[in-house]
Model the fold of this input.
Amino acid sequence: MELYVIRHGKTDWNKEYRFQGAHDIPLNEEGRQAARKLGEHLKDVHFDYVFSSPLSRAYETACIVIETPGSLRHSKGSIKTDPLLTEVSFGEFEGLPFDQWMDTDEPRKYFFKEPARYVPPKGGETFESGIERTGKFVHTVLEPIYKEKPDARIMIVAHGAILAALMCNLENRGVENYWGNGLKGNCEETIYNYDGKVWTLASQEKPQENPYVKMAEEGRRGARLIKKSDPDSAKITADILKEGGVVIIPTDTVYGFSGKVESAGALREPQGPHNPKGTHDCTGVPEALEGQPTEARIRTIKGRSETKPMIQLIASPLELAKYTKDVLPGVLLQKWPGALTIIVNDNRGGTTAFRCPGDEWLRKVIADCGSPIYSTSVNRSGQPVLDDQSAIIKEFALEVDLIVTDGDKKGAKPSTIVSITDGTIKVLRQGDVQIF
Done:
């Protein structure tokens, strides 16, 4: 007998790294697309039985996989839901982000690192209980199928934690090794063979690359995760910035690294072989400057291969007068607040790029911070800008202090960049804002 074990496609809570548990969170479009891709991969595989958790994210994944055009199975009626495959309940804290789940002295913090010591929140289910009920599924559902049809091929679609419990039964593991080789990735299959006595792993497992699992294993603290729509998100962001933290936040264009500017408008143009003209860069990485700890940290995170200064975001157009004697032309002033970056002569004898963003939430963060904040795109030096929030979390959660999520930013245009340092308006990059 052959068994295909599959974790459901992604949901919005997956992308936000939140514990879902028994909450019935639906697939998002990314999850549906992954299920279609898996269905195409498995279209020539005939399944005699298909079982699913009754939660919609698992059931819809199963439906999509077996209804892929050309598949050897087509009927929704062939999918049997079984409550024994429902995800492990996480009790009163379902929906909590991974970082808040583990940043505690409560025994729930052992969820990944030491599962034998894990104690669920109030109303939650223990790992031992999950192992017990999936063991019941093995004995009352799978083993009888083998007796009736030893060459049967079976698909199971369920959830990360309950599938780990199922695999404990198949691989004869105890709760101390609950996660085995790691949390399964979304829409990836693991295959087992059964000879009537022993279950044998027939495929290489592909554990999910989850930064918070790594954080737990290494005993490190990762970035706090909050949603932009949370009522206190602006205050929380500003407080972390004021403390000298580095954050990833949504701007009116793309996601950006930010940190508090210690001496606004004070950046001098680096002069040297790497930057002879002292040009600014709104997507690259400047070298660490003495006395700018947050700027230096952002550069270290992104990489050290470039020397161009980062832009500074201000809360109001009126604030620009604090940092330059240049007079903003009316044609530019009317575009602020907005996705327009303006390079001016600063009060320290260099030049600085400023933007007053169009996003009201972001302006409030800057105002509450009490200082301009740096902004540069979220990517490693020389790599493409990341516009997918889950990819951002995966890449940088262990290196920054806070990530504010606001969905993906695919297709977002960068800001327009102009310079007025010689008294004329020069468009250096045409972005979202039209100047002429």
Q: What stands out?
A: The longest strand covers residues 2-7. Residues 127-148 form the longest helix (22 residues). The radius of gyration is 26 Å.
